Amino acid sequence: MIKLLRQSIFLALDARQTSCYFLPVFLILVLASCRSEDPDYFPLEEGHWREYQETLVIRDESHTRRRIVRNLQAVIVEDKKLFVQESQGQDREFFSVMSEGVFRVDPEKNKSELILPLPPDKEDSWSLNSRLGVIESRTFARRDRILTKAIPITLTYSVISTDEDVVVKAGHFRHCLKVKGSGFTIVKVDRGNGLAEVKVESTDWYAPGKGLIKTERTERSESTFLKPGFYTLELLNYH
Asked: CA triplet 157, 161, 162: central angle to 5 degrees?
């Protein structure tokens, strides 16, 4: 039961985190300058891979795992080039690059959503669909559980900075992109007898030529029936 619950916890989070999951630790931090004339914050070329460590704190208990994300060979669907990304334990995801930026694509439903505007601008604002993944009921009643319900939430993102210095286990990255998203949703509590507002904040850092290198996410509520949760993702290794 505990194993199944932990699996459901990890699957509940958005792989956005934009298809950006999870990596061996460098014992020596390598200084990796990321400045370029036209920085690529979301590399999709075949052969690139990134290893991450993701940590979820749920009901004050910490759950940690590593995940490798690989870029596979691009495919052509209805005369459109789609980049393919594979993550451990999840289905493959498809992306397209347009003049507005990078989009996640669902070929079967013919839908797409903007993941990251390129080039980024501080006036940019966009929305991403996600799910609650770390906040949970303080009670153990099955009816009150949050994570098993895959409750959707829409986060509105904006560009905070394009010149961040970020240190993670994979190295020290300069001139990186920082974006922040926030949103809220309403959930049922107290065995369905009440409602509570859940607020979510998520901050991502992207290094040019490397992609996503760090994520920090919080899910909170003022309701006494809910326990806040926290999620972090950190780049460990890349190629």
From this structure: 115
Q: What is the rounded distance in angstroms from the CA atom of residue 174 to the CA atom of residue 178?
A: 11
Each of the 239 residues of the chain gets a pLDDT tens digit; together they read: 334 344 444 444 443 443 333 222 222 222 233 333 446 999 999 999 999 999 999 999 999 999 999 999 999 998 999 999 999 867 799 999 999 999 999 999 999 999 999 999 999 999 999 999 999 999 888 889 999 999 999 999 999 999 999 999 999 999 999 999 999 999 999 998 999 999 999 999 999 999 999 999 999 999 999 999 999 999 999 99
Tokens (6 digits) for 92: 């493959």
Domain boundaries, the chain: 2-238
Q: Which two tokens stand for residue 132?
A: 């609650």
d(C-alpha 115, C-alpha 112), whole Å? 9
Residue for token pair 């993550």: 87
Class at the top of the CATH hierarchy for domain 2-238: mainly beta
pTM more than 0.90: no
Q: Which of 80, 76, 66, 82 is nearest to 21 (CA)?
A: 66
Query: How far is the C-alpha of 16 from the C-alpha of 222, rounded, in Å?
Result: 26
